[in-house]
Amino acid sequence: VQLVASGGGMVQSGDSLTLTCTTSGFTFEHSGINWHRQTPGTDRELLIGIDTSGVTTFYDISIRDRATVSRDDSKSTAYLQLKNLKPEDTAEYYCAARIWTGGSWGNYFGLGTHVTVSN
Fold first, then answer.
1. Closest Cα partner for 35 from 105, 93, 110?
2. How many CB atoms lie within 10 A of CB 105?
3. d(CA 15, CA 56)
4. What pLDDT score was predicted for residue 84?
5. pLDDT (tens digit per residue) in 39-49
6. What would the mean pLDDT of 78-106 be, rounded to a whole number?
């Protein structure tokens, strides 16, 4: 199982960014995908997810009006679009797949991508 988030970088307040979660090693179309973020010294925060039917669930209301998650099962890839970025969005962003394995569901995290938002 491999997940790699990419697309991060340094942006300014108000900018938009699309993060990409590239995956392999599991049946993507059978797995929900969640996006998390983490800043130094804090716990990883669950932001938003998309299930196998394409239904979005927001877990962090601070991004509700600024985030869109999508998936392309043909490419085993998920996306997180963030609009109107704010300095408090600065964090390492991770995608995670919910995978059925060994008789139970597990969350598999991949490599993150860093987003820095400056004033």
1. 93
2. 11
3. 22
4. 97
5. 999 999 999 99
6. 95
3-state secondary structure of 95: strand
The C-alpha atoms of residue 38 and residue 40 are separated, in whole angstroms, by 7
Nearest to 34 by CA among 60, 10, 14, 15: 60
Half-sphere exposure of 62 (CA within 13 A, CB side): 9
CA dihedral 106, 30, 80, 66 (to 10 degrees): -90
Percent of the chain with pLDDT over 70: 100
Residue 60 structure tokens: 């962090």
pLDDT the model gives residue 101? 86
Distance, CA of 94 to chain centre: 5
Unique residue bearing structure tokens 């996006």: 35
